[in-house]
Amino acid sequence: MNINEAYKYIQGIARQNQIGHIPTDKLNIMFAQAQMEVLDDLWGNKKEYQPGRPVPTTGGFERNQTISDELAPLVKSTEYNQSDITIFTNESYIEFTKPSDYMYLIDLRHRIFKNPTDPKNPIDGVNKWVRVDIKTQDQVSYTMDSQIVSPDADHPTGVSFNNYIHIYPTSVNKIKLIYLKKPIAPVWAYTTSGTVQTYDPVNSVN
User: Fold this and answer.
1) Can you give the three-state secondary structure of the chain, one letter per residue?
2) Confidence grade of residue 154 (pLDDT, cut at 50, 70, 90)
3) Which H or E element spans position 11?
4) pLDDT tens across 104-131, in order?
5) Which of 36, 49, 191, 196 has minimal Cβ neighbours within 10 Å of its Cβ?
6) Which residues pair with 181 in a beta bridge?
7) What is the DSSP letter of 72?
């Protein structure tokens, strides 16, 4: 069903129920809200997360192949170089800004380089990507104070904030972020002649 078919369908239901014509601008807002509700259900509805039940009963990216396939067009990957990050030496973390279309985090890694001949740092190769363990701010505060589990290049820790992410320690300098991007909001565009609105397929978004 494209945006025009959805528009006609909803307006038809409105007429059948004697609600009258729904203003186009209001309907476009409803389309966008419905899209986000469907996306939340596919990802794993946040309202279903409860103490002792960290997994939602519906949805769940990478828990169900069909759902993962449906969300695949929204999966995006981007890399940050040293010039893209800010280093806070005194606080022992680096900071980078989330992409403008960022919605949900899927995976976060950083690349480390080591000398493969160094007996103190045996690795499988010269370069490798290491997963960043995302924690809450309280959890990070605990690990930073610990001499046993303190973050290092092999075991980096991160905290996700509204528009940016912190990663500990400051030796992190090459980052790969995989995330679910925000979809483009559906729009029923139209041209106007007097009081008549005519569907504009060129500027509409399905």
Assistant:
1) CCHHHHHHHHHHHHHHCCCCCCCHHHHHHHHHHHHHHHHHHHHCCHHHCECCECCCCCCCCCCCHHHHHHHHHHEEEEEECHHHCEEECCCCEEEEECCCCEEEEEEEEEEEECCCCCCCCCCCCCEEEEECEECCHHHHHHHHHCCCCCCECCECEEEECCCEEEEECCCCCCEEEEEEECCCCCECCEEEECCEEEECCCCCEC
2) confident
3) helix 3-16
4) 999 999 988 665 555 555 555 567 889 9
5) 196
6) 102
7) G
pTM over cut 0.70: yes
Look-up of token digits 């890399």: 79
Taking CA atoms, 31 is separated from 3, 10, 197, in Å, by 9, 10, 18
- Stated length of the chain: 206
